[in-house]
Amino acid sequence: MSKSKNSSGQKNSLRDHPPGSGQVPTEAVLGAGGELHQNVSAKIADDDGAAFLTDNFGHRISDNQNSLKAGERGPTLLEDFVLREKIFHFDHERIPERIVHARGSGAHGVFECTKAIPGLTKASIFQKAGGTCPVFVRFSTVAGGAGSIDTPRDVRGFAVKLYTDTGNWDLVGNNIPVFFIQDAIKFPDLVHSVKMEADRGYPQAASAHDTFWDFIGLMPESMHTIMWAMSDRAIPRSLRMMEGFGVHTFRFVNEKGEGKFVKFHWKPVLGIQSTIWDEAVKIAGADPDFHRRDLFEAIDAGDFPAWDLGVQLFDEAFAAKQPYDVLDATKLIPEEDLPVEIIGRMTLNRNVDNFFAETEQAAFLPTNIIPGIDFTNDPLLQGRLFSYLDTQKSRLGTTNFHQIPINAPKCPFHNFQRDGMMQTLVPTGRANYEPNSLVEAGEDGGPRASPETGFTTFTANDERNDPGQKLRIRAELFADHYSQPRLFYRSQTDNEQAHIASALVFELSKVTLDHVRARVVSRLRNIDEGLAKRVAEGLAIDLPEKAKAARAPIDMAPSDALSIQKRAKDMLKGRKVGILFADGSDKAAIDALKAAIEKAGGTAFLVAPKVGGIKVKGGTLKADGQLAGSPSVLFDAVASILMPDAAAKLAKDGAAVQWFMDAYGHCKTIGHCSGSQILIDKANVQPDEGVVPVEDFMKTGVKRHWAREPHVRDLA
Ligand code: HDD
């Protein structure tokens, strides 16, 4: 722990407190001068090494089971400060949850620059290949409350805090590269409409309801993000298998003060993968913490998730030539037009020690930017620059939230901001204003601005990017609301398109207002006539008239990078296989399959009707999970090794039949032995390239067998 004074005389002791020690920072325990009063017993733990239980002011507690009473059966006394402090603190444990992105999971890690780009940016982290800095990442859903499920159809937050040596850089992005609205002034309306409805208080964590679709239907600029939100991107398989995007166009600025536009991408090393809607719904019941658990367990097991940081770089000449405005957050730049260059890698390698202290108290600020990176005039970004700082005061209760260890920079920080609620630093000296000439009197004068190395705002010096006038308008190309939704839809595979259509039918079926449904479908006609027709048929409504487009859409060349399936990685690493066994199963075969899965980087999870030692051929075997509590939706593929009589018994058990029925319905690989046949038949599993003898399981691999989908589901 650093006890060093900074140049303003502040001691930044709390922020250096090592996480996980479970102790109050030493300097809070020690006296102001750092010395322990020697008249207190030097012994701080009992003979077993357990620390003495104390109240918050260090008084040792003699009895943590009984409150202080007036007589054996009398009332509790007000004098009982031990009881009062404990209940008082407990009563105030909760803080307001985030107004959006309340449900989230975080982890620590490291970012490493893999390609130096000093010519493009002076950002210190990109000066040298091999340079690293610590990071904290928080993934989230948007609409649901803090205790809601992990797998609703929703955008996922992807917020990264890089603790660089020139200050914190927060890249507060999503797993979708575009946003619902173009101007921050619409954000409160968007959020009000998607959250539970104001009078009835439901639905929780769902966009499938009147007010959301009412707003969307009236907001054609949302159509591009709606395509993404209705696609499988919005139901990810794992937080480790999502892309992340900075969404806005930012700027890189080099030493010479030259600027380049930049868009940031995080590419998951495990590839992108999603669930199927039916599966996502069932996972919500089977394991509401599916994503949080998956992230925690992977990191705990040393299977560290990683993402490559990519950039799309361009100049004003490129921007001016595009048929969309690069300052419009509802637009992306197809990777085929402008490739993503990889410049770094982020690896998450440490779980938080305390969820509240770290994940819940983490405060991300798009204004946390470092010299070498700058904002642009994107009107959505501009509004965010106010909102995030503001919201932390309401959530964390004090302007000093930057002193909470997870939020504090890891480089020194000094300024003349003083006091405020919950001030934990103890600045010394008189210098709390600037300019001052206290140095001339031999005193500490405090910090000074650094014109050379400090943050300076980029000046574009051109009419398009520094127009100067103040107007409540939007630039002309912002009026094209349909070209990119059309690009997105037309870049999908057939069954990805079917998923989008089904999602729209599902969501709009929950809408009770006919005119809202019709309006949304009328918008879809500008995206793709086929899609609009499918959705209208799925809703059993007449195809409404096409909505008038503020600007006629154009046809952009389809982009494979927008499809999950066209870029799918067929790999076992990071994936989980459920192996079903029961009495009499062949242990050697189970062990061999498990070893092969683990060798390929996957996880094998043994499932049986009972978890304790089951008698199998070759010994006894414990299961990792009980069948009823381990439905096949929790796995990426399944295998079964069963004796015929055990399978016959299981065929009477709904959980066992459903296990295969779901795995088949969710297009997963099913490896089975001849003994399991009765169960396979009962579950109506039909032979196809993904239903294989268990010996061929590894050869077949863990992937979705999409060709099966039309046989198991009526695709809209
Ligand atoms: Fe936001 C949280 C991402 C637009 C206002 N936002 C929040 C988080 C993420 C995003 C990932 C969670 C951070 C965390 O884990 O603590 N938000 C985005 C993206 C946007 C976006 C990618 C568009 C490109 N947001 C946006 C606008 C506004 C906000 C236009 C307001 C004008 N966002 C907030 C907020 C939150 C927030 C209310 C809630 C909690 C917080 O900030 O710290 O201020």
UniProtKB/TrEMBL annotation:
Essential cofactor(s): heme
Catalytic residues identified in the record: H101, N174
Gene3D superfamilies recorded: 1.20.1370.20, 3.40.50.880, Catalase core domain
Stretches with biased composition (Low complexity): 1-12
Residue ranges of every copy of the Catalase core domain listed in the record: 54-442
Catalyzed reactions: 2 H2O2 = O2 + 2 H2O
Annotated GO MF terms: catalase activity; heme binding; metal ion binding
Span list, region Disordered: 1-27
GO cellular component, as recorded: cytosol
EC number per UniProt: 1.11.1.6
Binding annotation for heme: R98, R138, F187, R384, Y388, R395
PROSITE patterns hit by this protein: CATALASE_1, CATALASE_2, CATALASE_3
InterPro entries: Catalase, Catalase_AS, Catalase_clade2, Catalase_clade2_helical, Catalase_core, Catalase_haem_BS, Catalase_immune_responsive, Catalase_large_C
Domain of life: Bacteria
SMART domains linked: Catalase
Keywords: Heme, Hydrogen peroxide, Iron, Metal-binding, Oxidoreductase, Peroxidase
One GO BP annotation of this record: hydrogen peroxide catabolic process
Keyword Metal-binding: yes
Protein family: Belongs to the catalase family. HPII subfamily.
Main function: Decomposes hydrogen peroxide into water and oxygen; serves to protect cells from the toxic effects of hydrogen peroxide.
PANTHER family on file: CATALASE, CATALASE-B
Protein name: Catalase
Organism expressing this protein natively: Sphingopyxis lindanitolerans
